[in-house]
Design brief:
Elements lengths: L1 H13 L1 E7 L6 E8 H25 L12 H35 L13 H11 L7 H14 L12 H8 L10 E4 L9 E5 L5 E3 L4 E9 L3 E8 L3 E11 L6 E2 L4 E5 L11 E7 L2 E3 L8
Antiparallel strand pairs: 1-2, 3-4, 4-11, 5-10, 6-7, 6-9, 7-8, 8-10, 8-11, 11-12
Length: about 300
Amino acid sequence: MPRQLNEKWYHKLRLKYRLVIFDDATYEEKFSFKLSAYNVFIFLTSLSVLLIFITAYIIAFTSLREYIPGYSNVGLSKRVYKMQRTADSLENVLRQNDIYFNNLKRIIDNTGNFSDGENHSASTNANTRLSDTIKLKKSPEDSMLRLEFESAERYNLQIEPSLTPESRKKAMAVTGFFLPVKGLITNDFDALKRHYGIDIVANSNEAIKSTLSGTVVYADWTLEKGYVIGVQHAGNFFSLYKHNSALLKKEGDLVKAGEPIAIIGQSGELSTGPHLHFELWFNGTPINPKDYISF
């Protein structure tokens, strides 16, 4: 009996059925299809497999998967990683630049105010008053040593190279210093008075020129010094130009020796007239420009 039922069920899958579509108004036959349960099952199964394949292809090989929740662009993670590396590199460069400019400001002035000897802070005055109270006594040995050294060097026409400091020898090896501006020197270099440059009075609207080739590392306006521009040169030389009326270069520009970089002026609160305050530094130490440039 169960076998007869199974055979009847199997035979039912093979039975043919006719699907007819009529016109509702005239009952005219429009379409007709011969179907069986087996054919319908095969058609639906094939259609399901095809839809699954198409869906899988869209998810795997097209950009439409980005619109499906939970999926993202394949290249997005690569771009994020590249942007992260770029940001880290920029952060390192900015950190190095900050360290460089902070060291540069400390070289120009320990107080960070770009002072050229025309003004002293209250702390400096206090330290000076305290140091004035200290009285030093010369010992006989010190006096004899000084006298012996001065006597030995009094008639020397040229300093012995072996006695010249290493930094001095390197500085003397650099030639080709260009005159920053033609004019009259009104104030000389005096490290004891914290005047680390020379003041040159020249004609109005005179162009200030770079003394050596290099890179502009500072170009800005300050309250006390007005428009200031600083150029880093090869051989650890650094030149500084203050009280300008206008700047012709910006930070990062490459300049050649003798190339105009500013216009002479009297900007800044500490300026008493149109002039250039010119400083020359070597290895972080101020040096007298007159020792290297013929003014």
